[in-house]
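Ticket #4471: structure export looks truncated?
Reporter: QA, pipeline team
Priority: medium

Steps to reproduce: submit the single chain below to the structure queue and open the exported record.
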Amino acid sequence: MGWVERITPWFGVAVIALAALWLAFAAYIGIDTLVNASRPAGDQWRVVAIYAASLVGAVCMGLVGVRAVSPTSRWPSDGAVRVLATLGLLLGGFAAPLIVLLGGYDLNGLVAALAPLIVYYVRIRRSLVDILPPWAGGTFKPAKRRRRADDDEIKRPPRTWDATSGAGPVSGGAPAGRPRRKQGKKKRRSSR
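Actual output as written to the record:
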């Protein structure tokens, strides 16, 4: 059964590559129609833009799939995988419904636009869960930036004249330092 685990990522990358090839032909035909038209219409620009966005999304998903196929090579890097997955999901996720909304869409175009997203969620995402951010189906959280030892700490002046700058939080609103004595009323002296 180990061969299945080695072949399925390659099969997923091959499916994404075929979908990207189909989308490249669709974008090329759209660009060719746009260039040869005497007066390009707005619909032609939309078709080219949608298929081009879907193509770029498929290429991004393909590169993420390459990392899933061979995680030991560490190419693309972890940061690049996060960026590519985010771009691929955004572009592919927006382009697929827009292909349907074009009206008179081709079913092959819809399948080609959805194939990278399906392969990503079914196979690629599982092997890269530790690298991918939560919005891309992963569990990666960036480490908080820690203060280096050579960084200068910014000291702020005290809020009141009685407080010291390094005392930290003061409980009860009392100023730092020694407590004040409550001032009593002055008594009248009798003049005898």
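Status: closed, not a bug. The export was complete when the record was re-opened. Leaving a note from the reviewer for reference: The radius of gyration is 32 Å.
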